[in-house]
Structure formats: C-alpha cells, structure tokens
Amino acid sequence: MATGEAPAQQNILRFGEFELDLGRQTLSRRGIRLKLQNQPCQVLALLIQRAPEVVSRNEIRQRVWGNNVYIDIERSINFCIRQIRGVLLDNAAAPRFIETLPREGYRFIAPLEGVVQEERSEPSGLAPAKEEITDVAVRPNRQRWAIVSIALAAMLTVAVAAFWIARRDVQVRVSGISPVTSYPGDEREPSLSPDGRQVAFSWDGEDARRHIYVKLLGEERPLRLTQDPADDSFPAWSPEGKQIAFLRRRTDSESDIMLIPSIGGTERILHRVQIGDFVSGSGRMMSWSADGKWLCFTSELGPSSHHALFLLSLDSGSVRPLFARSSSPEGESSPAFSPDGRWLAFARYASPMNSKIFVQRVTGKLDPDGEPLVVFNTSGNATTPVWLSDSKRILFLDRDGTRVMQAPIGGVAKLAYIASARLSGLAIDASGSRLVASRRLDDDDIWSLPVNGLRVTGEAQRFVYSTANEAQPQFSPDGRLLAFRSSRSGASEIWLADSDGQNPRQLTHIGAYIAGYPHWSPDSGFLVFHARLPDEAQVYMIRVQDGVTRQITHERPGFTVPMFSLDGKVIYMTETRPEGPMISQVSAAGGTPQRLWSGCCAQEAPGRGLLLYGKFEQPGIYGRSLSGDALKNPEIRLVKDYALWGGFEVVENGIYYVGCTPTGRPRAFRFYSFASGQSVDIAPTPLNYEGDLAVTPDRKRLAYTTAARGSQDLVQLDLN
Asked: Nearest to residue 677, comparing CAs of 604, 609, 621, 598?
C-alpha cells in the first residue's frame, strides 16, 4: 500500500468460528446469530480494534459509558467481560480470545480477519512517520536466526496450549435442542428414567388439573400415572427405575410426598410437607439418594416461610433436617445427589429469585461433611443442578433459565448453552448423556382499560407489546410518557413510550441481569428503578432528558421497588432482609439508607401524611402516619384482600389495587375510598393477568400486564 493511502474500512471481523458485524453490532457463530447486548458488543469491538494491545478498564469506561454516567463501573465492566466470554465459549484460565492482565486490562489474542484499526491522530507539530523500508537482501545469519526464533516460538505456543488443555476440565457443550412434547397446556418438571429412555413429567392438558405422566422418548402418546383430582407435580424417578416420587398439593401450603410404581399402580403417602409460593419455582423439590433408600426434599420450617432440606428414610419413614442450621434467609431447594452418593448439590436462596448453587460433601449416613462449597460465576438466580456421570461436575440453569452452566466441584461455572427461551427443571439420565428441560415461551404485554371514575367505558386494548416481555407500566405525573420494563433489546431495561403506547424507545443501557420497577419523580424529570449487576439489587436514578444515570444505594443485602416521596426529596424502597422485607428510605441525593419497618412497595398518600405499603406473604395494604416519629406510630390495615407485589397505586381520594381471593389469586381491579373505608370492584382481572397496576393522572385509564403466551413444552438438549 502506498504511503498516505487510507486502508479500506472493514465492517465484518472474523475470528475462529465467530463473525462480528460492526455496522449492525451483531455477533454470529457459524452463521447463527448470538445474543450479545449492546454494551458487551461495544467492549468486544474495542478490544478487537486495539488488538494486540492491552486495553485498560478506564479506556473501556471512556469508550462505552463516558464520564457522565454514574453507575458501578467495576461491576458493569466485569459483567460485559463475562457476557463476552460466555457467548464466545471462552475460558478465563485458558483464553482463546480475551486475555486478562491483572491491574492492566484486557487483550484480544485470537487471529483476526478484516481488522478495523482504531483511528489515531498524530500529535500536533509532528510529521507522519515514514513507511519502514525493509532491506530485501537479508543477511543469511539473520535469516536463519529469524527462522529458528519463529520455530521456537511455535513450539512454545504448542507446549503452553497443551499444558492448559491438559489442566482444564472437559467442557460439555449443548450442540442442539429438539422437542420432546408439544401438547396443549404446560408440560414441566421432567425427570428422566435411569436408562434415559423415558421421561416423567406433570401436565395439565387433559382435565385442567395437573397429573403425572410418563412417555417413551421418541413416541408421542404418554401414559397417565395419577388420577386424583388434586394437582400432582415434581416427579422424581428412583435410581433403580421402578418407582416415582411426586408431590400432591392438598392446600395452598400443604402437599404430600407420594410414591407410585413407574408403570402405574397403587400409590402411597410418604410424608406431608409445607411448600411456600416462591420455592415452587425452583424447578425441583426432591432427589433420591444413590442407593435409593432416602429422599432429600424441601419443606418450610414452621410458619416462618423459611425453607430447608430434609431427609426421609424410605425404610423407616423417619425424617431429619440435612443441616443443623442454615444461614440462608429464605432457605434451600433444588436438591440433587451425585451418582456416587458422596455429594449433594442444591440452590440456596437469599431472597425470591436470588439464589446460588452450593455443593455439599456428605458421609455414608448422609450427614454434612464440612462446609458447603459455593459455585462461583453465577448471576444470582441459579437453580436445578444435575450431575454428570463422573460425580465431579454439575450442570445447572442460570440467568432466569436462559443459560445452561457447567461447574466442577469447588470450581468456577462456565457457559455451556444460551437458550432462546427460558428453561426450567433440568433432568439428566444416569449415563449423563441425555438432558431434558421444560421450555417456556413468554410474551408479556401491557394492556390499557378505559375507565371513567369507577366505571369501565370500553374494551381493554393491548397497547405496549412485542415478541419480548413488557411489564411494570408507570405513567409520568405530567401525563406525557409511559415508563416500563422491556426485554426487547435482549436484556431487561427501562423503556419509554408516549402515554398512548406509541414511539417506544430504550432509556437505560445498564446491562443488568434485572432492571425494573421504574417510578417517576413528581416533576416527571427523573426515574428511579432497581437493577442487579448481577448480585444484590441496588437503586439507580436516571435523568430522562439525557439518560445520565446515578447509583443511589450500595449497601447489602440490597434494595428493590424504589418510589419517590411526594416532594421528590426521599426515595422509599424495599430492603431484602433475611428476616423479611423491610421498608427503608434514602435521600434522593444519596447517602445512608434509614430502615423503617417491616413491609414492601411503600408509597405516600397525597394530602394525607400516610405511608402505605404491603407485606410479604401477609394479605392487606397497610399504612402509618408520617407525622412526628413515624416509627412509633401505630400500623393500620386499610385493605384486606390485597396479596400481590406492586399491584396498587395511591391517588388523592383512595387506592386502586388488585383484589385477590382468600387463596391469593387475582380476582378484580378494585378501588378503596379513604372517605368511606370501603372497596368496590371496577372490573374483573383477565385470566392471563400477570401483575402490575398503573393509573393515568386523569384517572381515565388503567394499565396492567398480561401473559400473551405462556405454554411450556419439554425439550431435549443434545450434549457433546
């Protein structure tokens, strides 16, 4: 190339089996587009453009976020690098693509095609560097030494690569996914027979009740095992393949552990357990010991809502707790014994939807042997571990079921598969060669219901929707905008739309595991929301005009569902305490949070000096006066039939809320009058109501979330 001639711009960068399109900011692997969020994509492009130079964390901050965005940059950069490595199937210990240099930064190390070099201006007053002229007649000795040096470097590279390959664990990959069932309704909670030929699962498609079924893989028609009118769920196949344990729900909180032959027949009751709502989503309730003599199961410890793992003897019927005590605020679930019987993997919950995987060594009598080992590099929502046949490695679900991860005992988790839809309830056969899960296709949309006062004036209309999830609508006080949470960008972010749902646009680019529950400042200029990056949730504030973001809280164990006070000076929020949610407040300018009292989702009542709130697992909307020392003021219960999280909004003369049945099921949109102290129905909630309730400032429309599609089918994940 002649001196001064500009290189041709390359928009497509290829490395290994991957291809990065800079123009579209998309990443593909062998022609298949991968999910990589905007910020990790920018970081990857920067590392490639600067390769093979080291890029410092400060340079990454400057390029991706700039100086005017105040978030936890250290965690954000770590999140981006983890996302990149996960998508590229890279290993930090033996990297193919991204190398970490401690205290220096990161470097892209793979060979590249179509590299775009970052443009750099010459310092003023200096002439451009002359093109280097290479002497064609290289001396023979120099040429020989060059060849020898290249050969030695190549040998060293091969030796180092062989060393790392020998050291690293054999990585399981998911090479494909195929359907197992496609029945109407939900098929979920799979359990594979030891030989991997059959799958047991629960299904609600025949008579609207959930029953246990078994089917041969590859055949269409299932065999129904249970006939009881109660709901049956969570089957667990015994190690010898002759029996299946499952749960039969008797009441909203009580279930029986049942046992039935795997070919059908007489059932028997083994033990009654207490199961709370949140732990039911953990994907697994029971696991058989390797010798088939014990069942490890989840149950509540009395009325505290704290769950723990217990051991049930199949011979004697005796029951004992696995751990003498648990330091986990919410407890444990998702147990899984290793094939050799020496280990138990399980999920430990700090709060609902916040769990990590632990691995516990056990003795021959199934007593804990030492302290449990935590699995590192998880998002904070890891569930359903299963063991590979060597009893040294586990697979589990992470990031709300969109990631299948692999981890060795005492090691760091690595990405095995990125799912296009949420998975739950991993199951594996005895050989570790067949993996089955339930796949859920969600599409939550926001709907609007026209009202005039307390009277419905028209049909409900879907007004914010896409093929992704939209939820948690909040109208701005000036009536111009709607804030909501959406995953249409590939991550949970805060979006804005006009108040009629038109012109949706992404507001935050925080790249969090979860970002949600936006709430407006009184002047409609700011939003507060909570986000997890990726561990405990913290509160953030964003200026709507220019997107400048500031982190408000930093303390553990974290805060959720923030709401401005009526004067905009204080932010109320829910602190996720081990003893239960607590209402806290913090200055909108930042500072140390002040803990108030037990409760959640607090908001002020205009003109009444009241702080209204709900309580976790206790029906009702409660209130306390803010005059004087609010901590000493008595608590009153205004509404008795409210039992949801975030499903109410306070106005001048009352409370719009979602009324529930005694069992906690949504029943109707309602209004509570401060004047009369009574509640009236406005309209029944739709059958597919998913949560949330917002009211326009003129009180002419209600907004809420529904599930447009929510069926679950079983799928097989092909391992290699």
From this structure: 621
| CATH number of the domain bearing residue 519 | 2.120.10.30
Residues 435 and 506 reside in one and the same domain: no
Q: Are residues 319 and 214 in the same domain?
A: yes
- Out of 78, 108, 138, a domain closes at 108
* Residues paired with 483 in a beta bridge: 474, 496
What residue ranges of the chain have pLDDT lower than 70? 1-10, 67-72, 75, 93, 114-170, 277-281, 302-305, 326-329, 352, 490, 513, 534-535, 578-579, 709-710
Residue 174 lies inside a defined structural domain of this protein = no
Residue 321 lies in a domain: yes
Helix (H, G, I), strand (E, B) or coil at 447: strand
What's the domain count of the chain? 3
State how far the alpha carbon of 130 is from the alpha carbons of 2, 126, 284, in Å: 11, 12, 67
116 part of a folded domain = no
What is the predicted pLDDT for the residue at 305?
Answer: 63
pLDDT confidence of residue 530: 94
Secondary structure class of 211 (helix, strand, coil): strand
* Sheet containing 549-551, strands listed edge to edge, beginning at the edge strand earlier in sequence: 514-520, 526-532, 537-543, 549-551
Residue 68: predicted pLDDT: 55
Is the preceding peptide bond at 619 cis, omega within 30 degrees of 0?
no
pLDDT tens-digit map of 234-264 = 999 999 999 999 999 998 789 999 999 999 9
Name the domain boundary from 108, 142, 171: 108
- Domain containing 78 equals 12-108
Strand boundaries in 410-504, DSSP class E: 414-418, 422-428, 434-440, 444-452, 455-456, 461-464, 470-475, 481-486, 493-498
Three-class secondary structure of residue 336 per DSSP = strand
Q: Sign of the CA dihedral 454, 460, 461, 464?
A: positive
